[in-house]
Amino acid sequence: MNLEQKKEKLEEIRKELLKAKKAPLYSYRTENNYLPVPGEGKANAKIVVVGEAPGKNEAVTGLPFCGQTGKILDDLFEGIALDRKSVFVTSIVKDRPQKNRDPTKEEIAWYAPYLDRQIEIIAPKVVVALGRFSMEYLFDRYGVETEGKTISQLHGSVHEGKVGDQKIKIVALYHPSASIYNQKLKSVIKEDFSVLKQFI
């Protein structure tokens, strides 16, 4: 698939999400004049970054990681001299859950096929899971065995999974928003992020 075809396929996903009336968060989205947040970035990015679900700023603009957490993510990219425009940033759930609550299993199951398609289209070298929900879904989806370990044990680690018959690296990182609530995690997240340097 060439770059133009990839862009077209990603645009198709965006249009599908706009009209997805069966989406579990569709009515909440329309009641609040929110937008779905399919993701943004390079259609042939080497790195795809996957968050959990959009917050209010994201739902208002339709852009991923554009609020306070987005600023932290930008700083993390800057810290390893990685241009955000060169990666693709998205999340599993493409609509904002009420009051920024955690996404439910049902919501993840409904929206995840869109993420699967995005990863298939972009065909990155590495997928970065930000937070527990992303890590659990991506590890399970791409056959990474964690032996029941949690993100607090796996953060900063690189694993190998498979997309079809293609190998793919998956990196587990704390969600940037964790540093808002726990200042001690700031330096840990920064250090963990440096593991991505090898993929730039």
Provide a descriptive summary of the structure in words.
Helix 1 (3-18) runs antiparallel to helix 5. The relative contact order is 0.16. A hairpin with a 2-residue loop joins strand 5 and strand 6. The chain has a single domain (3-199), classed as Uracil-DNA glycosylase-like domain (Uracil-DNA Glycosylase, subunit E). The model has no long low-confidence stretch (mean pLDDT 94). The chain has 200 residues and is α/β, with parallel strands linked by helices. The protein has a six-stranded mixed beta sheet, sandwiched between helices. The protein is globular and about 40 Å long. It has helices spanning 3-18, 26-31, 56-61, 68-79, 105-122, 132-141, 151-154, 178-181, 185-193, and strands spanning 40-41, 47-51, 88-91, 126-130, 157-163, 166-173.
Features of the shown structure:
single chain; 200 residues; alpha/beta; Uracil-DNA Glycosylase, subunit E; six-stranded mixed beta sheet; 9 helices; 42% helix
Describe, in short, the structure shown.
The protein is of the alpha/beta class and 200 residues long. It has helices at residues 3-18, 26-31, 56-61, 68-79, 105-122, 132-141, 151-154, 178-181, 185-193; strands at 40-41, 47-51, 88-91, 126-130, 157-163, 166-173.
Measured distance between first and last alpha carbons: 22 Å
Sequence of strands across the biggest β-sheet: 1-3-2-4-6-5
CATH first level = Alpha Beta
Quote the CATH topology. Answer: Uracil-DNA Glycosylase, subunit E
User: Total number of helical segments?
Assistant: 9
Strand proportion = 15-25%
- Named at the architecture level, the CATH assignment is 3-Layer(aba) Sandwich
